[in-house]
Write a structure and sequence with these properties.
Blueprint (H helix, E strand, L loop, with lengths): L1 E10 L2 E2 L2 E2 L9 E2 L2 E3 L6 H13 L2 E7 L3 E5 L2 E14 L6
Parallel strand pairs: 1-8
Antiparallel strand pairs: 1-2, 1-5, 3-4, 6-8, 7-8
Length: 93
């Protein structure tokens, strides 16, 4: 089982999305998220993944419903937080 943590960021009635670069889901749109590192706290993982994928520093506001899905023949637990941007460095590619 793997844990995926990430953030849903809403601003100006829009949701910040990222375009996937991984081979298995290349080109698909998703919210910024990823697998936790070993011994990483869920909150820290969500903030780190969001920064790595967007360049934005965020403040977590609350947690959304937790879900589980089967991906790549393995169970994944999805933990998503509502967040707001506190420092923005978004780059367009």
């Amino acid at each position: 089982m793997k844990i995926i943590a990430g953030c849903v960021i809403k601003r100006d009635n829009k949701i910040l999305m990222v375009k996937e670069a991984k081979k298995s889901c290349y080109g698909q749109w998703n919210y910024p998220a990823g697998h936790l590192e070993e011994f990483e706290k869920i909150i820290d993982g969500a903030i780190r993944e969001t920064f790595e994928e967007t360049g934005c520093k965020v403040k977590l506001l609350g947690v959304l419903p937790i879900a589980n899905i089967d991906l790549e023949k393995e169970t994944h637990i999805l933990i998503r937080f509502m967040a707001e941007i506190v420092e923005e460095h978004i780059e367009n590619y």
